[in-house]
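Entry type: protein chain
Record version: 2
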Amino acid sequence: MSDLTQIPAADTFDVLPTAPIAPASREMPPPCEPSLEVLGVRVTDVTRARAVELLLDLIGRRDGYTRTAFFVNAHSLNLAHADAEYRQVLAGADYVFGDGTGVRWAARLQGVRLRDNVNGTDLTPELLSADPGSGRRYFLLGADPKTIRRAADHARQAFPRWKMAGFHHGYVADPESSRRVIQVIRAARPDLLLVGMGNPLQEKWIARHREEFGVPLCLGVGGLFDFWAERFARAPAWLRRLGHEWLWRLIQDPRTKARRYLVGNPLFMWRAVRNAQDRRTL
């Protein structure tokens, strides 16, 4: 079945004429924000409120260059530690934000107390709840056809200040399906592209095609669409405040999360301790 058969009907998919894309350039670099290095990845240390400001600034530039922002947790940093290409992709992002208890613990080993837990599941709704002005538009890309449609229904109701430009499932790994969905994204002319394909696939796919999107900002949002579609429930607020949402995810989905958390988390902390020790000897 063709990927494009999954595009919503005209009443739910708004496509505007394709606009020419200016030459890719970065004449205005992002402002210098505090940061630290965790397992070879530079993490921007800001509050979520400041992160929203930074992302709205990137969206507003509209100079033809697609900026990117990613979120890293213990799992994705483990992947980056073993994958030089992934580390290079993260290094090329405009912002990389720290998500989760593991990143906070790694920072404390370096004597840094992170200002906030800047995860995509919380930051993205805050961004879409901000008043962007000028009728900003967003596009959802990821998950399976049923999930992304339900996620789109949720987003329309939850974020009336922004307009949905369109949505598409995330099965676009081969060059031809990628080419076709990029054509759809360009025609829809969103200001913000949310890509939820999981790590490291989404970041690598974004980096590979970022010059083709014609979108001011692209975010890698991981499993966000599963939450919006109510495939999984968020942990209670009190558990999130304690920094143990990972335990809730493990209970909900032990088959796919057991190795990530029960093996990956101790491995990450061992690497973080080694990393902090190495930095102290420099």
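Comment: Residues 131 and 263 are 42 Å apart (CA to CA).
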